[in-house]
């Protein structure tokens, strides 16, 4: 039987380097599959914990997203955990089964001293002796860490490369000193770091950025299909192209913006131009005004906004296997003439429950989505940096007088349908129906996000504040 081979490249990659990208690319030519695993919290690396996971995920997408043969694994980062190499090996052997070998890519710094049993793997790793003797390793030579044949573990291959070092720690220090383009950092990764001020001494999650486009930007312009005004604005915006865009320009209304948000890879800023009605997520300007703003070198204010991960259970009792994400909201709505009966549970720092909510619709909203359907249900709009999830319902029959609640954004909100045979409901995510459902589970994603750009003084936060003072 032919043996297939998976190469697992795990690490902090904080930030990713050109040497990381080169190593993954070289591995993809040698192995049947190559998977880059961005690790979560590591007790020995405080630098990982200091950078928002959404930023680390986006930098990895920027660095590795254009390599078609390389898979990006953000599960550790999403779950806020660190799977050690021995656990990764066990996990992937179980997933792949017979006919596959699992190989682990490591730097030569981890094997120096192996001949005398004093390598970092043998001395410090979990199950170090067994890992050294039994696992398969792909060794990437690193500058400053020469090794001999005797230092190599029993099951290994050496990946030819440049042998450069380009440590991520050096890049972090360079960014902290104000360097905008440290050696070895991919330009688009460096631009992202500078945009949000990552690795600076300033405290906070750094969810607000400053985007200045080049004078001749590469723009992916996406107009609303049947909107003549949107197409006219598109013809004014120049130049534009689809390859490696500096930004995406969405032209239409809020509904079109949600469609664009669902289709654009995180890490690329989205600039909206309103050609619809309210245009809450977009900017009020013409194509010519947009061109003038870019040509003058004026910046856009950007906001990195988290999505929520949505899972739902189908009527046959199984969970839908595909992970789905919502920017605005996710809800259950009655799918018959019967009022829906739904148990609502919010679990996080504390547990809260409504044993039976009798209503037409119940939803979970992000702060950004609190201006949409949730607001129509009577819930108050939330400022975008408020760390909450908003639960709201319409046509509530019981509990009498209940309309909405706010819970910390590290909560998991579960809607469980009571008597689904008599009182069926369907799942809807960002306005898209997904059919019958008996349970929905919603939590804030640590890695899925959207970067929206606004004209200075017209931020999403300012728009939300203005809603509370109607003219």
TrEMBL record:
It comes from the Bacteria. Keywords: Kinase, NAD, NADP, Transferase. This is Cytidyltransferase-like domain-containing protein. It comes from Candidatus Uhrbacteria bacterium RIFOXYB2_FULL_57_15. Coiled coil: none annotated. GO terms for biological process: NAD+ metabolic process; NADP+ biosynthetic process. Residues 8-143 form the Cytidyltransferase-like domain. Gene3D superfamilies: HUPs, Probable inorganic polyphosphate/atp-NAD kinase, domain 1, Probable inorganic polyphosphate/atp-NAD kinase, domain 2. It catalyses: NAD(+) + ATP = ADP + NADP(+) + H(+). One of its GO terms (molecular function) is NAD+ kinase activity.
């Amino acid at each position: 039987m032919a043996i297939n081979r998976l190469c697992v490249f795990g690490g902090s990659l904080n930030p990713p380097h050109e040497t990381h990208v080169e190593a993954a690319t070289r591995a993809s030519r040698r192995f049947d599959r190559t998977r880059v695993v961005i690790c979560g919290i590591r007790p020995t690396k405080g630098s990982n914990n200091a950078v928002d996971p959404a930023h680390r995920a986006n930098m990895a997408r920027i660095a590795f997203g254009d390599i078609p043969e390389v898979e990006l694994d953000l599960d550790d980062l999403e779950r806020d955990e660190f799977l050690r190499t021995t656990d990764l090996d066990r996990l992937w052997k179980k997933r792949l089964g017979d006919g596959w070998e699992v190989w682990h890519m490591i730097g030569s710094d981890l094997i120096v001293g192996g001949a005398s049993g004093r390598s970092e793997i043998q001395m410090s790793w979990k199950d170090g002796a067994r890992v050294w003797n039994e696992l398969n390793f792909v060794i990437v030579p690193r500058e400053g860490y020469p090794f001999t044949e005797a230092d190599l573990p029993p099951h290994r291959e050496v990946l030819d490369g440049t042998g450069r070092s380009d440590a991520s720690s050096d890049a972090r220090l360079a960014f902290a000193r104000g360097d905008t383009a440290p050696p070895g950092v991919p330009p688009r990764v460096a631009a992202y770091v500078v945009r949000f001020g990552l690795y600076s001494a300033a405290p906070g999650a750094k969810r607000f950025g400053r985007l200045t486009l080049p004078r001749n930007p590469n723009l992916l312009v996406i107009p609303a299909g049947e909107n003549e005004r949107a197409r006219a604005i598109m013809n004014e915006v120049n130049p534009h192209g689809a390859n490696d865009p500096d930004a995406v320009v969405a032209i239409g209304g809020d509904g079109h913006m949600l469609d664009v948000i669902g289709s654009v890879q995180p890490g690329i800023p989205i600039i909206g131009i309103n050609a619809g009605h309210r245009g809450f997520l977009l900017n009020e300007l013409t194509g010519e005004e947009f061109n003038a703003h870019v040509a003058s070198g004026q910046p856009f204010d950007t906001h990195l906004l988290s999505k929520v991960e949505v899972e739902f259970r189908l009527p046959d009792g199984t969970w839908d296997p595909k992970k789905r994400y919502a920017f605005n909201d996710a809800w259950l709505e009655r799918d018959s003439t019967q009022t829906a009966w739904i148990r609502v549970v919010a679990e996080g720092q504390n547990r809260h429950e409504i044993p039976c909510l009798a209503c037409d619709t119940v939803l979970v909203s992000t702060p950004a989505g609190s201006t949409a359907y949730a607001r129509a249900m009577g819930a108050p709009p939330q400022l975008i940096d408020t760390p909450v999830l908003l639960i709201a319902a319409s046509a509530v029959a019981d509990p009498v007088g209940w309309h909405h609640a706010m819970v910390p954004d590290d909560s998991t909100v579960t809607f469980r349908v009571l008597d689904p045979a008599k009182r069926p409901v369907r799942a809807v995510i960002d306005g898209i129906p997904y059919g019958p459902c008996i349970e929905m589970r919603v939590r804030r994603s640590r890695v899925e996000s959207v970067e929206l750009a606004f004209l200075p003084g017209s931020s999403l936060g300012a728009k939300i504040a203005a809603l509370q003072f109607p003219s």
